[in-house]
Amino acid sequence: MRLPTSCRECRVGKRKCTPDPAGKQLRCLVCKSRRINCSNTVVPLASTFGGSIVRPEPLTLPATSVRLSTSTPSGQEFEFINLYFRYIHDRPHSLFHERSTWEALRNGTLPEHLWRAMCILGCRFAPQQGQRDRASTFADQSRALLDQQLDHLSVENVQTCVLLGNWYTVVQDADLQITYFGKFCIVMQPKSTNDQ
Q: Are 162 and 184 in contact (CB under 8 A)?
């Protein structure tokens, strides 16, 4: 898989992304001229997690998150989640809203099985092989935690099923891929009503 070289804002807007010649860690020239934030700007993780970056306001969704675990991500795990948003979740779509996710992490309301599932895919972009090798450990942890929660219908459980299904697609484990995408499909089926 080829890593994107243009910033997220240029990819979404289908513009040619021109890096700033002053340095790779600065806003691209397009974002600089438009006076908007640029995803190519390297922001310290504490700033990202602290919410100092201006992001679009989240859609109003019903609050389904409850604190399911006292475990919170370590600094390295926060970096893996940051890598997930940078390289996997590089376009707006309905699986996650980035700002809401960081807020839930900060408040301790994002379920552990979900943030561990995000770490599975994010750690694949870590600079060191030892960090990348943690993906299967994150997968085992996320699966075990999710299995304890599967009788509870929640958005977070659906999101975790999708991430696990994607991971098992990457590692070509067809049985587990079908298992987690199947669980996702079952959860998403509308309940039938008997009108008789």
A: yes
Contact 78, 45 (CB under 8 A): yes
Q: What is the signed CA dihedral for 22, 24, 30, 33, rounded to 10 degrees?
A: -40
Half-sphere exposure of 37 (CA within 13 A, CB side): 9
In angstroms, the CA 194 to CA 105 distance is: 40
Q: For residue 162, what are its two tokens?
A: 């999708």
Q: Of how many residues is the chain composed?
A: 196
Dist. CA 90–CA 12, nearest whole Å: 9
DSSP label of 57 = P
> pLDDT tens for residues 109-168?
889 999 999 999 899 899 899 999 999 999 999 989 988 877 777 788 888 888 888 888
pTM of whole model > 0.70? no
